[in-house]
Structure formats: C-alpha cells, structure tokens
Amino acid sequence: MPTQTKQVLLGKRNQITLPREFIPDHITMFECEQRDDGAIVLTPHITIPATQAFFWTPRWQKGEKAASKDIEQGRLTRFRSGKEMLNELTKRRKKK
Q: Which one of 6, 12, 55, 86 has the lowest number of neighbouring Cβ atoms within 10 Å?
C-alpha cells in the first residue's frame, strides 16, 4: 500500500483530527510514539477483553500452532457424539 500524507492542524487543546481514510475499521485507540528525529507515529492499538487474554499468551499460542499442525496433517479423530468421545478417552487412559 502506498504511503499517504495529509496535513492536519493542531487544535487549541493539542488535538488533531485524523482523516477518516487513515483509520482502520473498528479502531478507537492508538499508541503514540515520539521518535528521536521528532516524528510522531500513531499505531492502531487493539484491546483484548480480559476474558480472552489467555488466548494470546505464548503457552496458548504454542498449543494453537500444534493443534493446527495436527489438523493439517490429518492427526484427528471425529466422533458422532460426546459420549463416544468420552468412552474413547476412558479407554486410552486405562491403556497407560
């Protein structure tokens, strides 16, 4: 995507209005960074609800990658019911 540039005015209370086309859908928060060269960079910030934060932990993401790899390689079993699945898991536990 080509770089877009537009001039914006600094308001009385240090506020700026970003051009609508610069704002990604559903983004309401930005991280603001001032660089050594004086540049001010706004990066879209996505917040994650606390109830979903576990999903983004390194441990969980490692498990997600392993599960995706298993699925891609056909290492999965389908069951017709939850009861059938529980029976199979019980059998496997007894074998160990």
A: 12
